[in-house]
What we know:
By secondary structure, the protein is α/β, with parallel strands linked by helices. The chain has 18 helices and eight strands. An eight-stranded mixed beta sheet has the order 3-2-4-5-1-6-7-8, with helices on both faces. Strand 4, helix 15 and strand 5 form a beta-alpha-beta unit. Helix 1 (2-14) packs across helix 5, helix 4 packs antiparallel against helix 5 (73-83) and helix 14 (285-298) runs parallel beside helix 15. The longest helix has 28 residues, at 90-117.
Amino acid sequence: xxxxxxxxxxxxxxxxxxxxxxxxxxxxxxxxxxxxxxxxxxxxxxxxxxxxxxxxxxxxxxxxxxxxxxxxxxxxxxxxxxxxxxxxxxxxxxxxxxxxxxxxxxxxxxxxxxxxxxxxxxxxxxxxxxxxxxxxxxxxxxxxxxxxxxxxxxxxxxxxxxxxxxxxxxxxxxxxxxxxxxxxxxxxxxxxxxxxxxxxxxxxxxxxxxxxxxxxxxxxxxxxxxxxxxxxxxxxxxxxxxxxxxxxxxxxxxxxxxxxxxxxxxxxxxxxxxxxxxxxxxxxxxxxxxxxxxxxxxxxxxxxxxxxxxxxxxxxxxxxxxxxxxxxxxxxxxxxxxxxxxxxxxxxxxxxxxxxxxxxxxxxxxxxxxxxxxxxxxxxxxxxxxxxxxxxxxxxxxxxxxxxxxxxxxxxxxxxxxxxxxxxxxxxxxxxxxxxxxxx
Length: 440
C-alpha cells in the first residue's frame, strides 16, 4: 500500500490542477491514506495546490514539508517524483486506496466487537445492533457532496423535468407514481423524503400501494416494501387476481373456472420476476431501518413502501412510538437518498361527526406533519348530502414547496384495484359536489 500511496501523491505533484480534481472526484481524502507520512504529504500538497500553485516541483514540496517538521523531506520527495507521473493510473490508485481503507475499517469493527464480546456485562442485542449499524454504514456510499455538486445536481434535475414536460409528460422530478394525478400534484415520490398516506381502517391502503409497487416494478423501478398488515403471498395473490380481472375472494374460495385459475397462475409467475424486495417479518424501527439499508445497498431499491406506521414495534405509548418511527424514517430517507412512502391509519372521530376526514384525524400523529414532506388522506366518498360511493377521494393537504389538491379514483374493491378517474369523470364529480371545475 505504501508505494501506491506515494505514486498517487506523485501524480498530484506532476499535474496539480487536473490530478487534484481527479483525486477528489474519486473520493480520496486524507483519511484514505494508511501511512501517516503519506497522509501528511497529501495534506500539504493539497494545501499548496488550493493556494493557487499550478506547478509543484520537488523542491517546493520538500521545503513545505520541511517547514512542517517532516523528517527526511528531500529523500521522500525524490522518491515521490521518481514514481507518480502517470495520470491515467489515478482511478486505479484511488480504487486500491479506497479498498484498503475499507479493510482497515472492517478490522477496526472486528476489534470493537471482540472487545465488547469479552465484556461480561455487555448485552448480546446491543453488540449485534452496533455491528449491524457499523457494517451497514460501510455498505452505503458516504461521499461528501460539495456545494457546487449540489447545484449541478439540482440543475440536472430541473433540466430532466423540463425535458419530460416538453415531451408531453407530467414533469416528474422524483420516482414516478402510476397515477398521473399524483405526479402532477406531488412531482412523484421525492428522493430523500418521506411521503405519508393515511386512510381509514380497511380503507384500501394495501390495495393502493400494492397497485403502485407492481406498476412501478413493471416500468423497471426497483421497489422495496415492508408489510406489517398482510403477508407476501396475500399481496401477491391480490395483485395477480387484479391483473387477471378477477376477485381474490372468489379465488380463495375456489369459485373460478380452470381457464381463469390458469390465467391467474400465469400472472403470479410474471410478477414473481419483477424487481421487488418484500418482507412481512415483524420488526421494530431499528430492524426496519437496517433492512432498508441492506435493500438500498444490495438490491439498489429506488423506492420503499411501509405498511404501516402503527405496526412498527417500538417503546413508549402510541404517540411516542409513531413520532419516533416517522422521525427515524425521515433520517433514513435522507441518508440513503431514497423516497419512503409510509401508510398510516386515520382515527374514527370524523365518522362520528359524519364529515370527510382531514389533517385532524391522523391517528397518534405526533411528528407526522413535521417530518413528512407530503401528507395525504384518501377515503370513500360517503359523506355530505351529495356523494358517490363508487369514488375514492385523495386529498393532498400538505406538500412542501408544491401544490395541494384532490385526485379521484374509482373504488373497485372486488378486484382489489383503484384506477384513476379521467379528467371528465373528475369534473362531473366536482359538479355533483357543487364545486367549481377548471373550466368555470
